[in-house]
Specification:
Helix content: 25-40%
Number of strands: 18
Number of helices: 20
Strand content: 15-25%
Distance between the termini: 62 Å
Length: 518
Amino acid sequence: MNTGALNLVNTALHAGVEVCFANPGTTEMPIVAALDHVPGMRVVLGLFEGVCTGAADGWARMMGRPAATLLHLGPGLANSLANLHNARRARTPVINWIGDHATRHLPFDAPLTSDIAALTGSVGWTRTVTSAGEMAEASFDAVRAALGPPGRVASLIIPSECQWESCLEPLFVPMPSVLRKEIPGSAIYEAAHLLRKGRAGILLGGNALTVRGLNAAARVAAATDCGVWIETFPSRQECGRNLPKFSALPYFPEPAREALANITALVLAGAREPVSFFAYPDQPSRLAPENATLHTLADPDAGVDATLALESLAQELNAPAVTVVSRMTPAFVPNGQPLDADILCRAMAAFTPENAIVVNEAATTGLTWNVVHASNAAPHTMLFLTGGAIGQGLPNALGAALACPDRRVIAFQADGSGLYTLQALWSMARESADITVVVCANRRYRILQTELQRAGIIQPGPKAQSLTDLTQPVIDWTALAKGFGMPACSVHTDSELADSLMRSLVEPGPSLIEAVLV
């Protein structure tokens, strides 16, 4: 018997959705059963809904097409929202299949009844299925909505009876084409005009951070002597010693405004207007000078291809080709020193394999890696904490590793934020994913300690100190990882770190290195 659940999964598979990260409950049992009858749909169990959505985000960032999640009612969706927020900010195509009570059961306000649409509406596109017969159409509609452009979170709310009731088998349609919008000639001409005038800059984001996009930006910079910056936390960036080296716009507003202080125009190529992450007393929210002209060359929310826009701009400027001289990775010679952020990042740069994927949620240590060391490492792809909702790193690494099984994934992970979605370690072990987790264990919320100082609180009281400290008791990362079935070790010196990295990066399957920082 054909059912609505079968139509949901079959249609998604034929439209290009290959994987479902699932933490189902009672209202999704017909979909769980249907997954057994759809060859080709991979199913990955996450022990927490935020792991499922973060993994779907990581998979889709690497593949450029949607991954699905299977979630249980409003409370299950609520558990997943932080990483759906990150996916929304990254413009990642993610599809959520959310079971709901049977329609006839909703009036009784059962314990798990909630306003699911209000939650899904906060992160993207939503449709509520009303019958089994429309399930195939709704499934395809969700794929099309997720692909965009731009990519986005698309959620289907699916009452139980729409899953279990019988219906006709549909005619399956292949994945819809992603139609990028054409680049207006006027946008290219205006950008060229502003850059030729001098004292201008370009802010790169979105898919401007491909190899082609970065090389085109280097050509434009060489032709106009403009400044080039990369948005602070892009969704995905190609990095390494063989690519043009551009600075990321600083995280804190004062150095960010200082970097942009002398420009009279800022061209946005795949990036939004730069604003401060938070408001501070007596400081503006906008980071560009008040009188600077902001010009959108490629609007990321309109589906314009920023790489093509930069190449067209380089052509308009008659910009010559630029040869990038591959930088040497500084030698890492361990001598038994205690680990600090700089030593850890230098080791990472020395040992990162070519074509690796680095998922950077290392917070303060990650800024050191991104600003100073990533450009000296072997060519690699980096994924960032785009939306700022911590707990993305480990799930993102899981999804990226399953999407690209031929590439080593390094989860460069702060200890505080890693605890938000620690359950991802179990899924990594269960899936035998080739992931090296490097935990930057400074045993504190260092970013919050920095924010206290920025607020003028030089000597915080005992309550404030306790809210940024992770030492009472000390968190045993090796025991946690081993409890989830993952090999793990703790290192305190550069020699121990070098030995552990060399071993972990060549062994199949996941492992964890706790790097204890002074």
